[in-house]
Design a protein that fits this description.
The protein has 3 helices and no strands. The chain has 138 residues and is mainly alpha-helical. The chain has one domain.
């Protein structure tokens, strides 16, 4: 946001400065009109160049964001699928073991699963933080 404001301020300042210099210069009306026309064309060219540059940077940033978002979504999806498989595996193991108390078994398995889930969540959070820090530095 501050870069945008700076560029706008720079353009306005350049235009006002140029106009002031032209109006205060001791020239005839015809020479002044020619100079104003030249300055207007130069200003338009500079503005076009800045607009193109901003458009290119915006497209690059959009592409990077899409790529990173896709990668993060894929990683989260893979981790979610892995967790679902673990939970399904735990329930099927409990069902197969008829001699053990299912509540005690589930409680024991849940301790391990909880730490695994916590580790996966921390990994995901780190991935999000890394991606966010990369975007904030650009």
């Amino acid at each position: 946001m501050s870069t945008k404001n700076f560029l706008i301020g720079t353009l306005i300042g350049a235009a006002v400065g140029s106009l002031t210099a032209l109006l205060l210069a001791p020239k005839s009306g015809k020479e002044l009109r020619v100079d104003l026309n030249n300055q207007a064309y130069q200003l338009r060219d500079k503005t076009d160049h800045i607009r193109e540059s901003v458009s290119i940077k915006g497209n690059e940033l959009t592409s990077t964001v899409k790529d990173k978002t896709t990668a993060i979504s894929k990683k989260v999806s893979e981790q979610s699928v892995g967790l679902v498989k673990k939970v399904k595996g735990l329930t099927s193991e409990i069902e197969m073991d008829s001699t053990a108390n299912p509540v005690d078994e589930l409680f024991e398995q849940n301790k391990h699963t909880k730490s695994d889930i916590q580790k996966k969540l921390e990994e995901t959070k780190r991935a999000f933080d890394e991606t966010e820090s990369k975007f904030n530095t650009k």
